[in-house]
Every structure is written in C-alpha cells, then in structure tokens.
Amino acid sequence: MLTCHGGDGRALPADSADAATSGCLWFDLCDPSGEEIGRVERVTGVRLPTLERIRAIEMSSRLRLDGDVLHLNVPFFAHDVDQPQSPFGLIVAPKFLVSIRYGDSPGFARAAESVYAARTPADGAMVFAALVEALVGQLADHLETIIAKAGELSTRILCQARHSTRALTGMLAEIGRLESGLTRARQTMTGLSRAVGFTQENAPPWIAKTELARLKTVHKDLEALGELDGQMTDKLQFLLDAVLGFINIDQNDVMKLLTVASVVSIPPVILAGIWGMNFVRMPELKLPYGYPLALTAIVLSVVLPLLWFRRRGWL
C-alpha cells in the first residue's frame, strides 16, 4: 500500500496525479506491490531497495550515502510488543523521504501527525527527524510495557511463600516471553541508533542544524533506553534464577519427604519380618496378648521416628 503525505503531513490521494509529482513529500510504502515500487522510482528517480537488501545485516548494505541521498535500512524492527520483527528502509533526500516497511506501525502515523502539527514547510530531513522521534517514542512504550509486566511478575514470584509446580512452569514461560520482547526491543534500538548515528556523522549539507540537533537528542534517548535495557536484562535474569531456585527447593522438599518416608518404613518392616518367620520356638508367639503387642510395637516404630523428625524440624 502506498500512502503519500504532503509537506503539511496530511495524506494525499495516492491515485491522484498531484500525489505522484511535487505534491508528495513522504512516500510511505507498506507491503508494497511491484507496481507501487515502480511508480515511486519513476517519481523520485531513486532505485528502491528490495526486501532482501533491507534485511541484509552487513553495514555496507544497511547504511550508505549516495551523493545527497541517504539510504538507511533497519533489518530488525519491532512494530509492537507481541508482533514479530520486520525490516524497514528509509531513503532521505532534500525534497522527499521514502519509507519501505513490511508491518503496520503506529510510529509512522505519529510522525505524520507531528509534521502536520509543526505547521511549517517540511523537507526530507524534517520528516526523517519526526519519524525517528516517533519510532523512539514507540520503542519507549514497548519497554514500558515490558517493565510493567516484569514488575507484576516479580511481585507474584517474590511475595508468595510457596508456588505450585504448574505455577512455576507458567512463570518460566512468562519470563521467556518477556525476554523475547526485550530482545526485539534491543535489536530495534541497535538498528535505529546506528541509522541516527550514521546520519549525524555523514550529514549532507542540506540537512539543517535544527534537524541535526533533533537527531542528537534522539541519539541520547536511545542511549538512555540502552541503559534501561541492560537493567531489565539483569532483572529478568534475577527472576529466572529465583524461579529456578524455587523449583530446586520444591524438588528438595519432595526428596526429603521421600527420604523420611523410607526411613520411617524400615522399623515396621523389620519387626513384621521377624515375627513373620516360621520358626518352631518363638516364645512371644504363645503370649496371651502377643498379637496386639506386636501391632503396638509396629505402630510405635512408625510414630516415634516421625515425632523425632518433627522435633528436629525436618518435616
């Protein structure tokens, strides 16, 4: 789908002649068809990268300056917390910006609103700055969601004395999902940071100082988010260790109970084995109360060890 935005940020009719000429400042391609790609190439005079090119992870394919045109590719980008990653590419020129993406993202809509709210004539650099600001804001929202879920999970793990095995298994799955989301955010952060840093270092002369200042602020925001990502990584590792520790404690409790049960069962088995032997001379067999005395002895051989284990705090 091709969406054309004018200099004021408003969407123009994609099928109109004006949108395909000087009236369009930002060509936003979402899952584009071959016909849409060809149309934008004819209007801009720039060859658009293929999906394979955008996905490439080598630096030479991701970031380059071709004359006055910046080619920036982000191979890993998380458009939402629970959605898979998809790449997107940007072509920044003095009079236009082309974005090629393969997933719906609210950050692009925010960028259009920001350009419209500025109420000033825009160029490719201004749209690019507004777009990366919106994407970094979306990334911050992504991390805030992960932080909130991790805090809730931490409360459930650490503020309850005991957990069932099923509950601990579910907590492990939750930690895995949070770590997966954090990984997607980290890869997104890395791609955006490199794109912004490359633009700052290789800025063409047509990019105004005001836009470079905005990009510098965005780069600092990305560094701050990187520090937050490191803290969240440590916290998730701590929660993982805590859950695994509870699982080990639970397993140790089970083994302790089995050990106590095996020890308690030894005396009655011995007594029953002795009195079950078929010898001719066993004096206690002729006692008037031999049978109830034997049962009493067997019961006491079970109860006394249990009382001793309980006194020692092993139960």
Automatic annotation (TrEMBL):
<comment type="similarity">
    <text>Belongs to the CorA metal ion transporter (MIT) (TC 1.A.35) family.</text>
</comment>
<keyword id="KW-1003">Cell membrane</keyword>
<keyword id="KW-0472">Membrane</keyword>
<dbReference type="Pfam" id="PF01544">
    <property type="entry name" value="CorA"/>
</dbReference>
<keyword id="KW-1133">Transmembrane helix</keyword>
<feature type="transmembrane region" description="Helical">
    <location>
        <begin position="257"/>
        <end position="277"/>
    </location>
</feature>
<protein>
    <submittedName>
        <fullName>CorA family divalent cation transporter</fullName>
    </submittedName>
</protein>
<dbReference type="InterPro" id="IPR002523">
    <property type="entry name" value="MgTranspt_CorA/ZnTranspt_ZntB"/>
</dbReference>
<feature type="transmembrane region" description="Helical">
    <location>
        <begin position="289"/>
        <end position="309"/>
    </location>
</feature>
<dbReference type="InterPro" id="IPR045863">
    <property type="entry name" value="CorA_TM1_TM2"/>
</dbReference>
<keyword id="KW-0813">Transport</keyword>
<dbReference type="InterPro" id="IPR045861">
    <property type="entry name" value="CorA_cytoplasmic_dom"/>
</dbReference>
<keyword id="KW-0812">Transmembrane</keyword>
